[in-house]
Amino acid sequence: MINKTVSSIEEALSGVKDGMTMLLGGFGLSGIPENAIAQLVRLNVKELTCISNNAGVDDFGLGLLLKKHQIKKMISSYVGENAEFERQMLSGELDVELIPQGTLAERCRAAQAGFPAFYTPAGYGTEVAEGKETREFDGKMYVLEEAFKADFAFIKAWKGDEAGNLIFKGTARNFNPNMCGAAKITVAEVEELLPVGSLDPNQIHIPGIFVQRIVQGKNYEKRIEQRTVRQSS
Fold it and tell me: Nearest 5°: phi and psi at 40?
């Protein structure tokens, strides 16, 4: 059995350079690759294009990269929790492409499956469709969207084994699975790294063929974007 385990997050991010395009999993602050983001900050790589559902918050997640101006372009769906993102976008410091959430997920999945493009009705007749090919199917108009082309995909999973098989938990399944195998190199950081054979095959969400490197994560904060509690009675 092929062992895809690497000994450290430093080794996991070997080959990362300025100007690369990266997919980063997670939904809000749930299931984000905290260790990979921290290492990108330490490496101080610049001019990055980051594809992620959201842009983190000011002092956590992708917000850490934005704070150091390491990101040149953000391709996202939801960015409403980050004041620094807003400032950079409005000042013209940051190039931003906002796309429908389902389209973002499908552009990842298309890259994973090897499809160059697909048609979707989402965004037709809006700014999203400007400059893109459109076509009618059965009386309805669709927009041609291309699969993402990325150098690295950074994934966070709940459990994984040494062969790269992964299990996700809760809303971490929203984007992480689609990003596996959607880049030249997929790096998975996991909360629990187990020997091959430890995972129930029926519970595996992503097989190891979509993962090139897997590393044991540590020191996860797992923050909540907006913590809401019921008032005491």
Answer: -60, -40
For residue 150 the two structure tokens come to 């990325």
CA distances from 37 to 76, 163, 204 (A): 16, 23, 25
Distance (Å, whole) CA 51 – CA 104: 9
CB atoms within 10 A of CB 104: 24
| pLDDT above 80: residue 223 | no
Q: Identify the CA nearest to 215 among candidates 33, 28, 25.
A: 33
Q: What pLDDT, in 10s, does the model give residues 106-116?
A: 999 999 999 99
Q: How many helices (H) and strands (E) does the chain have?
A: 6, 11
Rounded to an integer, what is the distance from CA 85 to the centroid of its chain?
Answer: 17
Closest CA to 159 of 195, 121, 111, 133: 195
Tell me: pLDDT of 28 over 90. no
CA distance 176 to 23: 9
